[in-house]
């Protein structure tokens, strides 16, 4: 039996192209999830691994969908080889349990891990550059402007939190936090 596995790292990413490729490859059953590859508790991946038996084939679109670290990928594929399961990576072909197949696998997994590490490094460099700017602020940008918050605090003098929330769309917790910050800055 041919099992397919598709994964994206975030809920905002789309699985459709991977699923389409696995369907085109003729997978009998496809498991998919939106979960980071750096975590080991990927439920759908565990499920498909538990179902695989001698003679089955696991099909994935790329190695980085399968494992993020070289060691993790090698160990998982070794376990599959020991069970008599074939591994087919669509962008590189059937991974065979031969010296050449294992060499190619090691090289490709190392490149996948290297690529991920480079992404992390570039992200950190970008953040370090951004921190040098005067207007840099860590975290998510404010949803409401200072003017909107001040307006809500002004309304709070004559209205309840719930009424201010309904009028402005600013949540009660945001208004409470703003009120606390304002009283701290007065002292």
Based on the model shown, name its key terms.
elongated; five-stranded mixed sheet; alpha/beta; 187 residues
Fold blueprint:
Elements: E1 2-8, H1 16-24, E2 29-34, H2 43-51, E3 57-60, H3 70-83, E4 86-89, E5 93-95, H4 99-131, H5 146-156, H6 161-168, H7 172-186
Parallel strand pairs: 1-2, 1-3, 3-4
Antiparallel strand pairs: 4-5
Helix pairs in contact: 3-4, 5-6
Description of the molecule:
The chain is elongated and about 75 Å long. Strands 2-1-3-4-5 form a five-stranded mixed beta sheet, sandwiched between helices. The chain is an alpha/beta fold. The chain has helices at residues 16-24, 43-51, 70-83, 99-131, 146-156, 161-168, 172-186, and strands spanning 2-8, 29-34, 57-60, 86-89, 93-95.
Regarding quaternary structure, what we see is: single chain
Structural class: alpha/beta
Helix content: 40-55%
Question: Uncertain segments of ≥5 residues (pLDDT<50)?
Answer: none
Helix count from the secondary structure assignment = 7
* Approximate shape: elongated
Terminal CA distance: 71 Å
What kind of sheet is the major sheet? Answer: 5 strands, mixed
């Amino acid at each position: 039996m041919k099992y397919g596995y598709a994964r994206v790292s975030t809920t905002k990413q789309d699985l459709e192209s991977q699923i389409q490729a696995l369907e085109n490859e003729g997978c009998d059953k496809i498991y998919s999830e939106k979960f980071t590859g750096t975590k080991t508790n990927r439920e759908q991946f565990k499920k498909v691994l538990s179902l695989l038996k001698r003679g089955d084939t696991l099909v994935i679109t790329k190695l980085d969908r399968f494992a993020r670290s070289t060691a993790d990928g090698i160990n998982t594929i070794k376990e599959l080889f020991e069970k008599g399961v074939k591994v087919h990576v669509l962008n590189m072909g059937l991974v065979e349990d031969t010296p050449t197949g294992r060499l190619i696998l090691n090289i490709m997994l190392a490149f996948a891990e290297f690529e991920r590490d480079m992404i992390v490094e570039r992200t950190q460099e970008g953040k370090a550059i951004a921190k040098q700017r005067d207007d840099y602020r860590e975290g998510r940008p404010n949803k409401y402007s200072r003017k909107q918050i001040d307006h809500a605090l002004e309304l709070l003098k004559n209205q309840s939190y719930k009424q201010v929330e309904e009028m402005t769309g600013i949540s009660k917790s945001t208004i409470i936090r703003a009120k606390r910050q304002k009283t701290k800055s007065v002292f």
